[in-house]
Amino acid sequence: MNIILLGPPGAGKGTQAQKLVEGRNMVQLSTGDMLRAARTSGTEMGNKVAAVMDAGNLVTDEIVIGLIREQLEAGGDHGGFIFDGFPRTLAQADALGSLMEEMGQTLDHAIELQVNDEILVERILGRAAEAIAAGGTARADDNEESLKTRLMAYYKQTSPLIGYYHAKGDLKGVDGLGSMEAVAGEIAAILG
Ligand code: B4P
């Protein structure tokens, strides 16, 4: 089974993907994590995307599609892919459809985690405060200024994907305001 987790920053995509990895032997493909890893290891691409990410803007389609292609081609034996934070634009959605078709695979569900802006801001700024309180550093894009840009990018570039997957009959909406366990329960009911 291959699924997409859709939703604004802080909706809980990464959180729920992790639960599915633990419970169903699925593979999490988080473009956010891949980009952060590229930055940390100081690759040319990582250095190129750092400022874009810190400001809260989307990295180019070409880069993220390339990252996903590499992961899909790596193959492996598992319970399916969880696309976490990908696709984020219509061009990425089309590219994913073509890649899956090339591999003879299908996308089973696009699950939209629905959370209002007020809660998103609370969660993201809460995560930043927790990291600092623990003696570490907050993610460079977990601040009020970048978050505004991330939310704008979501509504402008990513939210059209809700209609895109709805038209294909693949969209499932989940109330993302509940506890992490409650959200996981709703997702489990969809996956069966
Ligand atoms: P991502 O890493 O995808 O980050 P995100 O959307 O901000 O987070 P997510 O929704 O996964 O939230 P999480 O579970 O962590 O992207 C970062 C950046 O990378 C983007 O801005 C962009 O620059 C770049 N990028 C990534 N993919 C791209 C693409 N495809 N194209 C172009 N650019 C791309 O949860 C957040 C917080 O909420 C956590 O503290 C968590 O504990 C808490 N939380 C989660 N669920 C909760 C619940 N039910 N109740 C209470 N708290 C909850």
Automatic annotation (TrEMBL):
Main location: cytoplasm
Record keywords, A-Z: ATP-binding, Cytoplasm, Kinase, Nucleotide biosynthesis, Nucleotide-binding, Transferase
Binding site for ATP: G10, A11, G12, K13, G14, T15, R127, G178
Pfam families: ADK (PF00406)
Gene3D superfamilies named in the record: P-loop containing nucleotide triphosphate hydrolases
GO CC entries: cytoplasm
UniProt-listed InterPro entries: Adenyl_kin_sub, Adenylat/UMP-CMP_kin, Adenylat_kinase_CS, P-loop_NTPase
Database matches in SUPFAM superfamilies: P-loop containing nucleoside triphosphate hydrolases
Binding of AMP, residues: T31, R36, N57, L58, V59, G85, F86, P87, R88, Q92, R139, R150
Pathway stated in the Swiss-Prot or TrEMBL entry: Purine metabolism; AMP biosynthesis via salvage pathway; AMP from ADP: step 1/1
UniProt entry tagged with the keyword Kinase: yes
EC main group: transferase
Record field: catalytic activity: AMP + ATP = 2 ADP
EC number of this enzyme: 2.7.4.3
Annotated region described as NMP, given as residue ranges: 30-59
Similarity annotation: Belongs to the adenylate kinase family.
Task of the protein: Catalyzes the reversible transfer of the terminal phosphate group between ATP and AMP. Plays an important role in cellular energy homeostasis and in adenine nucleotide metabolism.
Domain notes per entry: Consists of three domains, a large central CORE domain and two small peripheral domains, NMPbind and LID, which undergo movements during catalysis. The LID domain closes over the site of phosphoryl transfer upon ATP binding. Assembling and dissambling the active center during each catalytic cycle provides an effective means to prevent ATP hydrolysis.
Subunit composition and interactions: Monomer.
Protein name: Adenylate kinase
Upper lineage: Bacteria, Pseudomonadati, Pseudomonadota, Alphaproteobacteria, Rhodobacterales
